[in-house]
Amino acid sequence: MSTMTTFTFRPLDPLQDAELLHRWVTHPKAAYWMMQDAKPADVERAYLEIAADEHHHALLGLGEDGEPAFLMEYYDPVHRELAGLYEPEPGDVGMHFLTPATDTPVHGFTKAVITAVVARLFADPATRRIVVEPDVGNRAVQALNEAVGFVPAGEIRKPEKRALLSFCTRERFETAVAAE
Fold first, then answer.
1. Distance between CA 93 and CA 150 in Å, rounded?
2. pLDDT per residue as tens digits for the range 167-177
3. How far apart, in whole angstroms, are the C-alpha atoms of residue 138 and residue 142?
4. Nearest residue to 24 via CA among 76, 64, 61, 52
């Protein structure tokens, strides 16, 4: 991408955004999101639960036109997702992101998204390390993770998948972004 895309973020509104999210998470290209068979009400319910959860948050990333461009979730791995599966450190934040499938892909878009998501999390001085746990088979997202500074720590077994636990420190992220 010749110009860096600038994204803004807003809290996800489970009621207003459920239809859009349903299209995104049930698309075949979103298979790793594990909501392929979800009905609109299931998606709404899942995000209402996140909205009510003090340890899990969902944001929509908005493009320069103000339209929703991607989904970002972050969570406290001490209490959600990874609880009991690794040794958390103070300042750890878990993260997921989803770029919707498109018929007109823009080269570099997903890299710009993950860069914006990680930058958003590190904008909080309390965030010391970001933790991700993509499916071991999801090579595309593993490559994106590594491009922004994530280092694999090994496989873990989650109830729904085998995952590659990876970490990114602020320093590794800044080095990776500077190298661009």
1. 13
2. 999 999 999 99
3. 6
4. 61
